[in-house]
Amino acid sequence: MKDFEKLIEILDPNTLLGALMIAALLFAAGLILSWSIKRLTIEALRHDRRDMIDQISLNFLSRLIGLFVWVVLLTFYAHLIPALDRLASAMLAGVGLASVIIGFAAQQTLGNLVAGISLVLYRPFRQGDRLQVAAPAPSEYDTGTVENISLGFTTLRSDEGHEIIIANGTMAQQTMIKLLPEAAKPAAPKA
Predict the structure, then answer these.
(1) Same domain assignment for residues 101 and 61
(2) Which domain covers residue 171, as residue numbers?
(3) What is the rounded average pLDDT of the residues 163-189?
(4) Residue 36 pLDDT grade (very low, low, confident, very high; cuts 50, 70, 90)
(5) 149 three-class SS
(6) Rounded to two decimals, what is the model's pTM?
(7) Of 188, 171, 187, which Cα lies nearest the Cα of 129?
(8) How far apart are CA 117 and CA 139, in angstroms?
């Protein structure tokens, strides 16, 4: 019983040591949950024999869930620690103004996140598709194979081997041409 009381005393959120110990425990829980989500994603893709699961969608969803887990843990920590809870209550008056300022400052970032979600949901292209997109190149377009869609960017691998990184907001708004895979190109007519 004394050990349990000592543990409760160490984890007292009113003390600095307790607040740090709780932070360490929640950080460890966050790492374990993030690792578990990543592991489940890998296992789901490994056991998908019929290509029923879209790899980009699953990776995007796992990142979004991981972000949600960290936000929930941070919010939980702020409510557990009385000093942070009081500070949050005192700052509540400025939250409205701060959220407007942050909203304007992060408008493009949040737009890229929402555009990434719409790209994953509507699937205008999949991993491995060849696309022709507008790019700052001499011919005003570039061609590449879709490698990944992250929370903010879509990554293509060009035919020349360089990486093309396009913000999801730009990717969702531009006209792109879906090309045949390199192996499926029709043979050039003989002269």
Answers:
(1) yes
(2) 126-181
(3) 78
(4) very high
(5) strand
(6) 0.55
(7) 171
(8) 30
